[in-house]
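Quarterly update, task 2.4: iron/sulfur cluster-bound model.
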Amino acid sequence: MCRNELSIDYLGNVYDCDFNQMENIPAQTNKIEKITVAKLLEANSLDIIEQVQTANYCYGCTAGCGSSCSGSLI
Ligand code: SF4
């Protein structure tokens, strides 16, 4: 999911995926600022998301079949 989709909460905060949203790990700029829909619209680009935030549950995704999003970083 984090490679081609985003999760957005009701306050407009942007997350790389729904797992990160549930863990409250927001997408960040290279200046470590939380990304919101307003910031994305202002930048007019998704490139302000510097890197995907990861955690242990990503292993379930990178395995390709462990989690509901079934994404894969590698
Ligand atoms: S690999 Fe990690 S960041 Fe990417 S979708 Fe899966 S849980 Fe989210």
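Highlight for this quarter: The longest strand covers residues 7-8.
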